[in-house]
């Protein structure tokens, strides 16, 4: 089989460390690796080795299919009661003149702007403020659904839910039930940061704990709903903290099966309290994608968020376990552009996104939020994309 060629070459390498050879055998045979073996991958695995294993898993699951969707973002506010040290996006209440605070009508106007356009998802997440309480959000979600019933609403993180449920004096169970009834279809993966309390306390100690984040997703899954998960990497955490984070997600997925996608999020150091910490290299980014794909054997998808890492690195990630590069988005999302991401105006047309995927030998598949295939663009013919000629022209990836 073509997908096995690269991993076969790995197994036949006489110079390969014995512990890495054992892990490669387990991956080839579909066996789960341990936490200690995950740590070995980070500490000993060279980039080519990790890519071979991760790409084997990726192609065994999805072949060359690479998923994207047509979505837009609403960020209600960048003013926040919390002070996460890694955040370049938020402004404290005392600095609110430097931020924005949308009204409900403002947000509904953003939804209406996409009337008649073939978007399938609105992604809604932002800062935490008292006026955005449980009643506000449930009314907003009902009004979005009333206006456009087929639009998938992916909204709010456990950081926001923890606050609004506490303010409303309702349990997580009651709160999530009301959120589901108001029209929210799925949860994004944000707010996970790093679960390990040693690190979380240092970078985001005043918001919900890792255990609380996991519990809110667990309750959501118990309601028959789906969600995503993230990990913020490349700051003060060590490899063992990353593996601990991945293990917590893997255990919950074993229990509920409710996670769809894992999205590693790269720490960006512009204009925040951790600006003195250098950012990770592209090599480390690709290693992290690969280890995530190998370790999270019960997650269907690994996503690279292209506005955060840039279009060319997103292309490279498709050979390191990634099978999803998010969506067309729009220039309404500022969370990463304000932190110094590669994309300062993150928007791509469907044609540009399709070309980006095809130019590295992958098949572009438009999906909805729950990964139902909407359209296979493999044989779609577009006019020449002269505006981006040469921009995405990386060497085509092969498995030989």
**Total of domains:** 2
In helices, the fraction of residues equals 40-55%
- Strand % is 5-15%
Overall shape? globular
- The largest sheet has its strands arranged as 9-1-10-11
Radius of gyration: 21 Å
Q: Supply the CATH superfamily name of the largest domain.
A: Aldolase class I
Secondary-structure-derived class: alpha/beta
**CATH top level class name of the largest domain:** Alpha Beta
Oligomeric state of shown chains: single chain
Secondary-structure map:
Layout: H1 5-11, H2 18-28, H3 35-44, H4 47-62, E1 65-69, E2 71-74, H5 104-113, E3 121-124, H6 134-147, E4 152-155, H7 158-168, H8 172-182, E5 186-187, H9 197-204, H10 210-222, E6 226-233, H11 239-256, E7 259-266, H12 282-295, E8 301-302, H13 306-309, H14 311-317, E9 324-327, H15 350-358, E10 363-367, E11 373-376
Parallel strand pairs: 1-9, 1-10, 2-3, 3-4, 5-6, 6-7, 7-8
Antiparallel strand pairs: 10-11
Helix pairs in contact: 3-11, 3-12, 4-12, 5-6, 6-8, 7-10, 8-10, 10-11
């Amino acid at each position: 089989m073509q997908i096995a060629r690269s991993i076969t070459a790995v197994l036949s390498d006489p110079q390969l460390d014995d512990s890495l050879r054992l892990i490669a055998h387990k991956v080839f045979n579909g066996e789960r690796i341990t936490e200690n073996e995950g740590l070995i991958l980070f500490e000993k695995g060279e980039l080519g080795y990790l890519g071979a294993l991760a790409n084997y898993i990726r192609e065994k699951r999805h072949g060359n299919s690479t998923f994207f969707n047509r979505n837009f973002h609403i960020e209600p506010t960048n003013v926040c009661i919390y002070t996460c040290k890694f955040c370049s996006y938020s402004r404290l209440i005392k600095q609110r003149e430097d931020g924005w605070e949308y009204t409900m009508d403002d947000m509904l106007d953003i939804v209406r702007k996409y009337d008649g356009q073939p978007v399938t998802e609105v992604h809604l997440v932002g800062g935490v403020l008292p006026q955005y309480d449980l009643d506000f959000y449930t009314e907003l979600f009902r009004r979005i659904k009333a206006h456009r019933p087929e639009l998938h609403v992916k909204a709010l993180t456990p950081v926001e839910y923890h606050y609004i449920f506490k303010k409303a004096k309702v349990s997580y169970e009651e709160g999530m039930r009301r959120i589901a009834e108001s029209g929210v279809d799925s949860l994004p993966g944000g707010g996970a940061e790093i679960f390990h309390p040693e690190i979380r306390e240092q970078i985001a100690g005043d918001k919900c704990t890792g255990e609380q984040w996991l519990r809110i997703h667990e309750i959501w899954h118990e309601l028959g709903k789906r969600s995503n998960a993230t990990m913020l990497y490349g700051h003060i955490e060590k490899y063992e903290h990353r593996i601990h984070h991945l293990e917590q997600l893997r255990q919950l997925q074993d229990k509920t099966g409710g996670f769809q996608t894992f999205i590693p999020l790269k720490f960006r150091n512009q204009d925040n309290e951790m600006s003195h910490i250098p950012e990770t290299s592209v090599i480390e980014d690709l290693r992290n994608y690969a280890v995530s794909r190998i370790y999270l054997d019960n997650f269907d998808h690994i996503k690279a968020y292209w506005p955060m890492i840039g279009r060319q690195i997103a292309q490279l990630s498709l050979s390191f376990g990634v099978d999803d590069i998010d969506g067309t988005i729009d220039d309404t999302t500022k969370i990463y552009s304000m932190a110094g991401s590669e994309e300062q105006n993150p928007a791509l047309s469907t044609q540009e996104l399709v070309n980006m995927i095809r130019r590295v030998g992958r098949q572009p598949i438009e999906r909805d939020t729950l990964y139902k295939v909407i359209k296979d663009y493999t044989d779609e013919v577009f006019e020449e994309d002269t505006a981006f000629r040469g921009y995405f022209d990386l060497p085509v990836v092969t498995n030989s």
